[in-house]
Amino acid sequence: MTSDDQQRGRIESEATDWLVLQTAGRLDSHAESAFQAWIGRSAQHRAIYAELRRTWDSLEVLRSNPGDLLRHTAKLNHKAEAMRMPRRLTSAITALAASLLLMALGAFLWFGDLATLMLADHRSAPGEIRSVTLADGSHVDLGPASAIRVQFSATERRIELLNGSAFFHAVPQALAGGRPFVVETGRLSARALGTRFAVERLAERDTVAVAEHDVEVTLRGPDDLAQSAVLSPGQTMRYRRGAALGMVGSIDPREIAAWRSGNLVFYQAPLGEVVAELNRYRRSRIVIMDDELSARIVSGVVRGDDPDGALKVVTDELRVRKTEWPFLVIIHK
After folding, report:
1. What CATH number matches the domain at 130-250, 2.40.50.200, 2.60.120.1440, 3.90.1150.180, 3.30.390.10?
2. pLDDT tens-digit map of 241-300
3. What pLDDT was estimated at residue 69?
4. Closest Cα to residue 325, out of 16, 12, 24?
């Protein structure tokens, strides 16, 4: 997925939050001002919100006047004039259309991208840590709001991390018929030369950290030229969208997939990344209203099982304000 796709997914998710608040009648004067600031940020914000609003409004019209839908359905019958749908069927069609939109809204709120919901073989809900045993006996711990797609073949064991964080305990290649174990996050791939490692895929970056044995990390560019590096235990590497493969760094083994023990560790992380991580622990969404705020740096350790408390620690540290509604929290100056 490209950075443009990631950005569009983020805007779609935020637009859904605003639509939910509007249709629930929960926009007071302060929230309305915040909404106007959000929609004024770019033409893409306005276009995506307008598209989502049109879809919702069309369902409102459908509830009161299903004629257009009925006429379209009647084309399936050569005798359209003679066809009269029972009221019960009309209601069922309307309910189905509404359900489909609600499914789309729910997917945006929970995963931010419908492709994740459609492609995932295994996924976790916000705030949930889930353990999965794969067909070869390998184990995967999925972080909150994370998803993987499993593609095993006779020659390879390939996992696509669609979103979020995962810690892998891979069965060694020698015990799996010689098939390598590979985790990919788009252009980045991590090939296990050992057994235990973590991979993270967020909106702006991917990260690989090794707990046991070695992992070969490869970044394939658009011109098919590849960069590779081998990470040893206690080493980590980041890749930011559109950049080259990052430098190899060191990491405390206790911090690798720290979310498995309930901790979230941030070191010199932009607030935007911190919020993206906290959103994986919440069913309501946190939105930052200012790009300058998103770039502010945060360091610290917070508890993932108390996302509200973690958010308070972060906002107190940065001395910024937050405004809360049932489905949305806005961080602003």
Report:
1. 2.60.120.1440
2. 777 788 899 998 888 998 998 888 888 888 988 888 898 888 778 888 778 888 899 888
3. 40
4. 24
Q: CB burial class (10 A; 0-12, 13-18, 19+) of residue 140?
A: buried
Handedness of CA 227, 149, 263, 261 (dihedral sign): negative
Q: How confident is the model at residue 6, as a pLDDT? A: 62
Q: Name the amino acid, one letter, at 251.
A: I
CA 158 to chain CA centroid, Å, is: 20
| Total residue count of the chain as it appears in this document | 333
The mean pLDDT of 180-186, rounded to a whole number, is 94
With beta carbons less than 8 A apart as the criterion, state whether 237 and 219 touch. no
To which H or E segment does residue 114 belong? Answer: helix 114-119
CATH number of the structural domain 262-333: 3.55.50.30
DSSP tag of 102:
H
User: Is a pLDDT exceeding 90 seen at residue 231?
Assistant: yes
DSSP state at residue 253? G
Nearest-angstrom CA–CA distance, 258 and 297:
20
Residue 199's DSSP bridge partners are 166, 208
**CA–CA distance, 82 with 66 (Å, rounded to integer):** 17
